[in-house]
Specification:
The protein is α/β, with parallel strands linked by helices. Helix content is 35%, strand content 29%.
Length: 405
C-alpha cells in the first residue's frame, strides 16, 4: 500500500516549552509509525517573534526591512533544530531545514513576501531517503539571496504551499484549540467545534477576525485544493476539516460568528462627488500601507458632495487621520470625524446563499438587545456590521442564540 504524505504545521503555542515540543515529537512519530511520510513545518517557540520584534523596536524602529527579516526568521531556526533533535532522540531520522536550504523562493517584498516556487525535487529526495524534514516556516529567500519573511501567520502559508507543491494527501495545522468554533470559546462558553467548513467559509471567517488560520494560507489551499485540517496539539480528537464542499444541513445556514475588537471608523464629510476623488483618498491610505475594510458612501441630494465612511485597524487609526489631513485641502474634504472603540461582528455560512431572511434575523437579534448598527457590508456568504465596542459580548451572545449555534 502506498504511503500517504502528510504535512504537519506546529504553531508557536504548540512549541512554547520543552514539554510541549516533546509531546509534538511523539505525535509526529505516531504518524510515521502508522506508515505515513511526514513533512513538518514549525513556527518560532512561543512568543519568540514578539521578543525579537521588541529588540528591533528598541534599536531602530525604522530599520532596513531586509535586516529585520534576517532577525525575525531566526526564531524558526531554533525551533526546527530542536524538533529535529527530539525526533532523532526517539528514533525518527530527521533533519532541520531553513527556507534558503530547500530553497523556498519568494519575491522581494521583505516583511510580507510571497512564495514564488519551492524545490519539490529536493524535498521528494529527502523523503525518499527516509528522512523527515523539519522546515522552518515563515521564511524564504529572494532572488537577491536575502532572507525574507512571509508576514505574521506565515508558517501556515509555508505549510500549505509545501503541501500543494508535493501533492500531499492533507495538511494538518496543529494549534492550541480543538478546531474552528462557532465563535470564540473564550468569550462564549456554549460555542461548539465545527466539524467541516468550506474554503470560502474559512476564508471569510479568517479575513474578518478568526485567528485560527491565516487568510493567505486558506486562499492558497483553495487555489490548489489542499485538504486542510485544524487540530489540537494537546488532545487526540478530531479537528475541523476544510475542503471545497460540505453537506449543507438545513438548520445550519450560518456556520459561525466572528468578531474583531481592534477596528476604528473614519467619516469624511463634504467630499466632492467627482471622478478620481475616491482614488486619491484611498491611494493616500494605500501609500502608507493602511488597509481599509468596510466602506460606505452617501451622496447628497444635489449630487455634488458625499459623505464617505470607512474602517481601519486601530493600530492604523492615527496614521490614517494624518494621511487624510495631508490631502484634505487638496481634495476638498470639509471635515473629518474619527471614531475609535468600535467592533465588527460577522456571520458566515454557505447556507446564506440559498436562504432568504438571514439579514433580517441578524438585525432583529441585535435590535432586541438595543444595539445600534453603524455600518453594514455583505458578501455572498457573509454579513458584517459595525457596532460600539461596549456591546460586543452582548451582540455575539444574541447572534449565537438566534442562529442556534
Amino acid at each position: 500500500m502506498k504511503k500517504k504524505l502528510i504535512v504537519q504545521k506546529l504553531g508557536g503555542s504548540s512549541l512554547s516549552s520543552i514539554k510541549k515540543i516533546k509531546r509534538a515529537a511523539q505525535k509526529i512519530k505516531k504518524e510515521i509509525i502508522s506508515g505515513n511520510n511526514v513533512v513538518v513545518v514549525v513556527s518560532a517557540l512561543g512568543k519568540t517573534t514578539d521578543y525579537l520584534q521588541s529588540l528591533i523596536n528598541k534599536t531602530d524602529v525604522n530599520a532596513d526591512l531586509k535586516e529585520i527579516d534576517t532577525i525575525l526568521s531566526s526564531g524558526e531556526q531554533v525551533s526546527s533544530a530542536l524538533m529535529a533533535l527530539f525526533l532523532n532522540k526517539i528514533g525518527i531520522n530527521s533533519r532541520s531545514f531553513l527556507g534558503w536550504q530547500i530553497p523556498i523562493i519568494t519575491n522581494k517584498s521583505y516583511g510580507r513576501a510571497r512564495i514564488l516556487d519551492i524545490n519539490a525535487t529536493f524535498l521528494k529526495q529527502i523523503i525518499k531517503d527516509q528522512v523527515t524534514p523539519i522546515i522552518a516556516g515563515f521564511q524564504g529567500i529572494s532572488e537577491e539571496l536575502r532572507i525574507t519573511t512571509i508576514g505574521r501567520g506565515g508558517s501556515d502559508t509555508t505549510a500549505v504551499a509545501i503541501a500543494a507543491k508535493l501533492n500531499a494527501d492533507r495538511c494538518e495545522i496543529f494549534t492550541d484549540v480543538d478546531g474552528v468554533f462557532t465563535t470564540d470559546p473564550r468569550w462564549i462558553k456554549k460555542a461548539k467545534k465545527i466539524n467541516h467548513l468550506t474554503y470560502d467559509e474559512m476564508l471569510e471567517m479568517a479575513s474578518v477576525g478568526a485567528q485560527v488560520l491565516e487568510p493567505r494560507s486558506v486562499s492558497l489551499a483553495k487555489q490548489n485544493n489542499v485538504s486542510l485540517i485544524v487540530r489540537s496539539s494537546f488532545k487526540n480528537i478530531k479537528g475541523t476539516s476544510i475542503s471545497k464542499t460540505r453537506k449543507i444541513i438545513e438548520k445550519r445556514n450560518v456556520s459561525g460568528i466572528v468578531f474583531s475588537k481592534n477596528d476604528s471608523k473614519i467619516t469624511l464629510l463634504g467630499v466632492p462627488d467627482k471622478p478620481g476623488v475616491a482614488a486619491k483618498i484611498f491611494g493616500s491610505l494605500a501609500s502608507q500601507d493602511i488597509n481599509v475594510d468596510m466602506i460606505v458612501q452617501n451622496i447628497s441630494a444635489d449630487g455634488k458632495f458625499s459623505d464617505l465612511t470607512f474602517t481601519v485597524l486601530e493600530n492604523d487609526f492615527f496614521k490614517a487621520q494624518k494621511s487624510i489631513n495631508k490631502i484634505k485641502k487638496k481634495v476638498g474634504i470639509r471635515n473629518i470625524l474619527p471614531v475609535s472603540k468600535v467592533a465588527k461582528i460577522s456571520i458566515v455560512g454557505i447556507g446564506m446563499r440559498s436562504n432568504a431572511g438571514i439579514a433580517k434575523e441578524m438585525f432583529r437579534a441585535l435590535a432586541k438587545e438595543k444595539i445600534n448598527i453603524d455600518l453594514i457590508s455583505t458578501s455572498e456568504i457573509k454579513i458584517s456590521v459595525l457596532i460600539s465596542r461596549k456591546h460586543i459580548l452582548k451582540a455575539v451572545n444574541a447572534l449565537h442564540k438566534a442562529f442556534k449555534l
